[in-house]
Design goal:
The complex is a heterodimer of chains A (249) and B (310).
Chain A lengths: L1 E5 L2 E3 L21 E3 L1 H15 L5 E8 L3 H11 L3 E6 L6 H15 L3 E5 L10 H9 L2 E12 L2 E8 L2 E7 L3 E5 L11 H7 L4 E4 L12 E7 L8 E3 L2 H11 L4
Parallel strand pairs in A: 1-4, 1-6, 4-5, 5-11, 6-10, 7-10
Antiparallel strand pairs in A: 2-3, 7-8, 8-9
Helix pairs in contact in A: 2-5, 3-4
Chain B lengths: L2 E4 L9 H12 L4 E7 L3 H7 L5 E8 L8 H11 L5 E5 L2 H13 L4 E5 L1 E4 L2 E6 L4 E7 L4 E5 L14 E4 L9 E8 L12 E5 L6 H15 L2 E4 L1 H5 L20 E5 L5 H4 L7 E6 L12 E4 L2 H11 L2
Parallel strand pairs in B: 1-2, 1-4, 2-3, 3-10, 4-9, 5-9, 12-13, 12-14, 14-15, 15-16
Antiparallel strand pairs in B: 6-7, 7-8
Helix pairs in contact in B: 3-4, 5-8
Classes of the chains: A alpha/beta (249), B alpha/beta (310).
The complex binds flavin-adenine dinucleotide (FAD) and adenosine monophosphate.
GO molecular function (chain B): electron transfer activity; flavin adenine dinucleotide binding
Subunit structure (chain B): Heterodimer of an alpha and a beta subunit.
Function (chain B): The electron transfer flavoprotein serves as a specific electron acceptor for other dehydrogenases. It transfers the electrons to the main respiratory chain via ETF-ubiquinone oxidoreductase (ETF dehydrogenase).
């Protein structure tokens, strides 16, 4: 079977972003960009299934600017077989991302789509679930373990309070949580090899999807700053401050 | 503008997250009804009828809803959506799982994790681990919204709405519940605790984590939390992770011990009223948000602190 892994190009998780002074957005000029960390976990999981002989092909797909080719190349260097870029310079909201991914699924007919649970830029946590709805597939979100078996796939999920295991028939959607695996690093030879792997560049129009954003961002602001605290010299002083100054205990 | 508020519960009692989302639902104006979907959750429905400002409670009782599987529950919500202008749920793991499915079926964009209702179509929500806030206006006729519960006060339980059964015969052959491992226990729930004690990688083992933090948490009546590094290392269960991609908490007192204060961790706790940090590194970023910082070795300071609380 084929596995499709959507990967998003986002600001690297180590970067502390800055809000533009005029409130029009976040300053992305000269900021380091990387593959969304949850998507690295998704690529890793797909590769593991391939290495276990349970999948034949891993396809990475990204929706974004031309530079998202770099993100796809990262996925290819990890071991994915081919890439698809759906090129657009517009912001694409999760609903339209899901519609585009549905069109790719219709064309490629994968049995599994493994996404990240959340993109660390928009923190939306929606796309996988939306794609599940549009396709009428079952979903195993926030995956902690994934087990393919004869009937489909069992996904153990990280939920409030602990873990929950669901059984899904195939085809199905999985979204990754942090503990699913540790993504591999791409070796230099594999990075070189990845340059020759196939990467198709398409446009939203090729899939008959029109990008129509529903949300208008009126303003982007910084969070309120906490006032600077103090260092205390001892446990006794801490307890005294908590009792008598903060009234916290 | 009428709103359908989706209740978070475990079939036995109403979770406090519902009351906080109720405050957001009330701010939309136009009143709200509450949906309780579950199995044998009659007590929950009765409790939900007391939510201040609630109209009627729609009670959908079906074995298919026992574990809140996204596929049948989303179909149920969509079948009820016609009568409502907005669908609102707390951003708990259940509704993060299910509500985007509802939104896509209704062909609308979900607005995730709102921290403020500006007007009926305009909301504030965090992006980039809470390092920026966006004010967004939706052009969708129907709004589908999840609520960051720490940003809203809990609604009172002094109302007297009515409960109405809703028929539902969900057909779901694509997913089924297999098993669950839920912690339970006596400790207060992390999301609604007044005091949270969190530990990081510095504890070095699960044994030390428990041995040092449990007595402290007991003294303070606190919930326990953890950094991602502590969870990854197996010192603490997954659902104790506080942060951008874990739980967001805002207790009266948050004590971060042996936690460096990465932005992803700060995202989940920096709205706490009072923050205490204990760390050997006086330059650890956690001190930039701490009201009271104590520089030193947790292995001596934590037992000392526990003893000092007698
Ligand atoms: C996609 C993504 C999502 C993430 N989501 C989250 C999240 O939701 N929540 C989260 O917490 N993290 C998250 N992280 C991880 C985050 O970036 C940090 O790696 C993590 O928070 C570090 O955990 P820590 O502070 O326990 O460990 P470290 O950064 O290793 O810090 C340990 C601290 O302990 C101190 N220390 C050492 N010995 C002692 C001692 N004896 N006494 C006292 N102090 C001592 C050290 O000075 C240090 O400051 C995420 C990362 C990614 C990439
Ligand atoms: N523009 C995109 N291109 C490819 N995949 C995406 C894109 N946006 C979101 N995704 C996928 O959807 C997941 C969840 O994103 P979100 O719903 O935006 O939090 C990500 O981890 C990706 O796997």
């Amino acid at each position: 079977m084929k596995i499709l892994v959507p990967v998003k190009r986002v600001v690297d998780y180590n970067v502390k972003i800055r809000v533009k002074a005029d409130g029009t957005g976040v300053d992305l000029a000269n900021v380091k960009m990387s593959m969304n960390p949850f998507d690295e976990i998704a690529v890793e999981e797909a590769l593991k299934l391939k290495e276990a002989g349970k999948a034949e092909e891993v396809i990475v797909v990204s929706i974004g600017p031309d530079k998202a080719q770099e993100t796809l190349r990262t996925g290819l260097a990890m071991g994915a077989d081919r890439g698809i870029l759906i090129k657009t310079d517009e912001t694409v909201e999760p609903l339209d991302v899901a519609k585009l991914l549905k069109a790719v699924v219709d064309e490629e007919q994968p049995q599994l789509v493994i996404l990240g649970k959340q993109a660390i830029d928009d923190d939306a946590n929606q796309t996988g679930q939306m794609l599940g709805a549009l396709l009428g597939w079952g979903q195993g979100t926030f995956a902690y373990t994934v087990e393919l078996n004869d009937n489909g796939v069992d996904v153990t999920r990280e939920v409030d309070g602990g873990l929950q295991t669901v059984s899904l028939s195939l085809p199905a959607i999985i979204t990754t949580d942090l503990r699913l695996n540790e993504p591999r690093y791409a070796s230099l030879p594999n990075i070189m090899k990845a340059k020759k792997k196939p990467l198709d560049v398409k446009e939203p129009g090729d899939f008959g999807v029109e990008i129509k954003n529903r949300l208008t961002v009126l303003e982007t602001t910084e969070p309120p700053k906490r006032k600077a605290g103090i260092k205390v010299g001892s446990v006794a002083e801490l307890v005294d401050k908590l009792k008598n100054e903060a009234g916290a205990i | 503008m009428t709103t359908l508020l989706i209740a978070e519960h475990d079939n036995k009692s109403l979770n406090e997250a519902t009351l906080r989302a109720a405050s957001a639902a009330a701010q939309l104006g136009g009143g709200f009804d509450v949906l309780v979907a579950g199995e044998g959750a009659g007590d929950v429905a009765a409790e939900a009828a007391k939510i201040a400002g609630a109209g009627k409670v729609l009670h959908a009782d079906n074995a298919a809803f026992a574990h809140q599987l996204a596929e049948p529950v989303a179909d149920l919500i969509v079948s009820l959506a016609d009568g409502y202008d907005a669908i609102v749920a707390p951003a708990t793991s259940n509704w993060k799982n299910t509500l985007p499915r509802v939104a896509a079926l209704l062909d609308v964009m979900q607005i995730s994790d709102i921290t403020e209702v500006v007007s009926g179509d305009t909301f504030v929500r965090p992006i980039y681990a809470g390092n920026a806030f966006q004010k967004v206006q939706t052009s969708d006729a129907k709004k589908v919204i999840t609520v960051r519960t720490t940003a809203f006060e809990a609604a009172a339980l002094d109302g007297s709405g009515s409960v109405e059964s809703v028929e539902s015969a969900p057909a779901n052959s694509i997913s089924s519940f297999k098993s669950e491992e839920l912690a339970g226990g006596d400790r207060v729930e992390l999301a609604s605790a007044k005091v949270v004690v969190s530990g990081g990688r510095a504890f070095g083992s699960k044994e030390k984590f428990n041995e040092l933090l449990e007595p402290l948490a007991d003294k303070l009546g606190a919930a326990l939390g953890a950094s991602r590094a502590a969870v990854d290392a197996g010192y603490a269960p997954n659902d104790w992770q506080v942060g951008q991609t874990g739980k967001v908490v805002a207790p009266k007192l948050y004590i971060a011990i042996g936690i460096s204060g990465a932005i992803q961790h700060l995202a989940g706790m920096k709205d706490s009223t009072t923050i205490v940090a204990i760390n050997t590194d006086e330059d650890a970023p956690i001190f930039s948000v701490a009201d009271y910082g104590l520089v030193g070795d947790l292995f001596t300071l934590v037992p000392e602190l526990t003893a000092a609380l007698d």
